[in-house]
Amino acid sequence: MTNSTSPCLCAIDIGNSNIVIGLGQHNAWQTVLRLETDAAKPVSFYTEQLTQAVSKLSPPNKVEGAILCSVVPTLTETLMQAIEQCALIQCKQPLEMTEQLNLPTRIKTLHPDKTGNDIIANSVAAYTRFNTAVIVVDFGTATTVGVTNARGELLGCAIMPGLGTSLNALVSKAAQLDPITLTLPTKVIGADTTSALLAGIVQGQLCAIEGLSRQIQDELGDKAVVIATGGYSSIIAQVQSVFDWHLPELILDGLAVAFKNNI
Fold first, then answer.
1. What is the pLDDT of residues 112-126, one digit of tens each?
2. 118 an active-site residue?
3. For residue 152, is it left (φ>0), alpha (ψ between -120 and 50) or beta?
4. Which of 13, 118, 138, 253 is flagged as catalytic?
5. What is the pTM assigned to this prediction?
6. Domain range 106-254, CATH class
7. What stretch(es) of the chain map to CATH 3.30.420.40?
8. CB-based burial label for 172 (10 Å; 0-12, 13-18, 19+)
9. Model confidence over 123-149: pLDDT tens digits?
10. What are phi and psi of 249, to 5 degrees?
11. Using an 8 Å Cβ cutoff, are 260 and 169 in contact?
């Protein structure tokens, strides 16, 4: 539980499908709020959501810092203004996650300024926690497989369509396929349409990640800790033969580390 005498942080991850708001401290998030990403919503909507979330903190805690990470540029300024207008958040100059911050990892991609801030935040959190080579599989609108070596260098990633994105694309193009609920299949030979879709989309992506993880570690020449995170991670993170850890709030942890390193 969050220590009532310690300052509370507001960390916000703006993704293509969801906005995740964490209130608390690194590895001790007291409140995690998930909202559907909607660029049409006004600043006042997000200010109200922040105000309600902060007001429910127990015990009451001062929110004295704020940092956000965004892959949706049209919403970055909206959430910045929402933080500034929230009377219960004392920090009025939110920090934005970028590759230019003082971070415990170094960005070694070809174009650091074009590397996803979410991938950077995941790398920061994972390397800080394990201090060794890490592979972070973030299951969102896209599934990203970020790679940080044992020296703390973010080398790059692999990107594939996310589970929901794959399903929606297929259903929208195939007249006889209906939407289904994504779950981990028990078999890979689908005896009906639903089980066949689950085998192909969910188990298929799991096999892809297993193969990628193996090849990544071959390229690194080192064993890496494989972590599942992101909105869809709960569906397949239970497969212990592929993942070492399931850390659904990893990106919030990365934002907390970045904030601490830059205040």
1. 999 999 999 999 999
2. yes
3. left
4. 118
5. 0.93
6. alpha beta
7. 8-96, 106-254
8. exposed
9. 999 999 999 999 999 999 999 999 999
10. -100, 25
11. no
